[in-house]
């Protein structure tokens, strides 16, 4: 089965991990700080490494002090963790509809969803294409809310020449194997404001504080540490940070290959009946995590099944978040975001990863053309 996504791991990556295993540090050692500093050079803002992308979202909401009584406005066209981590902190998630072409959070819909209880507006850079952050910044600022970017798909992307990581108050990344780079499991939170970064760092480290200036009882002894606010153990180990640092050295090459593959899909699939291709706005330089096409005329399920039967692992990204039973049981109803639901009904992700060969891509295109033209 040709997968829709796959990691690229080289001998250099293996040696980096082996070197970490041979060292004195398997976790919370020097490679964590190294990886965070290297991430900052890409993201444009200081970063805190965490154990996965879901933990990154949970950490970002906690750093923003989201809790009971607060509302978080976000998109339903995302992996459920964008919403569920806010709900788990006691917030009410308010889903706003998406733009018809990019499937990113629609700033006008987000603005209409704002209430006096709104404390965060969370966008998602769907498939690697940045959301409309300048407009969303105005929405968040007018509401007195923090702006959060779920950039799980988008490390390496830019918006009006500015790197993802500088566009929101808090930005989260995922380093799952199918993402633009991998640490096996892993993620990070970038923050443009020192206080948010400090709270994120404390939260991912069980809330522990060692700085004498912040201790309530500073004279206990050199061993002393305190927990002024609860946190969780979301630390990313040295071993996985070593893999991440090695992967970051190839990020530009990863982006170049993904861009080439996306442009090749654009050319090979142009004009195929019953098929819509993903858009790229003029101001965006996306690092494509997904290549999401839209299958028209109600044929998405048929195309999915036939492509899978042909050994091509297409995928659907994603079920609208409020369709999940956990949100249905909270009273969320289908039909509330019709643009997102229409997008979901047609969406199909074609294989896209660095090691995808031209011949494999030709196979994908031929199979898809054959099905749609039959």
Task: Describe this protein's structure.
This protein has 374 residues and is of the alpha/beta class. The protein has 2 domains: 11-248, Aspartate Aminotransferase, domain 2; 251-372, Aspartate Aminotransferase, domain 1. Helix content is 38%, strand content 14%. It is built from 13 helices and 13 strands. It has helices at 11-22, 30-43, 53-63, 81-88, 107-113, 133-143, 194-203, 238-248, 251-269, 300-309, 325-328, 338-346, 358-372; strands spanning 47-50, 71-74, 92-95, 118-124, 146-150, 158-159, 162-163, 170-174, 187-191, 275-276, 284-285, 291-295, 347-350. The protein has a 7-stranded mixed sheet. Strands 7-6-11 form a 3-stranded antiparallel sheet, with no helix packed on it. Strands 10-12-13 form a 3-stranded antiparallel sheet. A hairpin with a 2-residue loop joins β6 and β7 (162-163). α2 runs parallel beside α8, α3 (53-63) packs across α4 (81-88) and α3 (53-63) packs across α7 (194-203). The radius of gyration is 21 Å and the shape is globular. The chain starts with 10 loop residues before the first helix and ends with a helix. InterPro entries: DegT/StrS_aminotransferase (IPR000653), PyrdxlP-dep_Trfase (IPR015424), PyrdxlP-dep_Trfase_major (IPR015421), PyrdxlP-dep_Trfase_small (IPR015422). Its cofactor is pyridoxal 5'-phosphate. Pfam families: DegT_DnrJ_EryC1 (PF01041). Its EC number is 2.6.1.102. GO terms for molecular function: GDP-4-dehydro-6-deoxy-D-mannose-4-aminotransferase activity; pyridoxal phosphate binding.
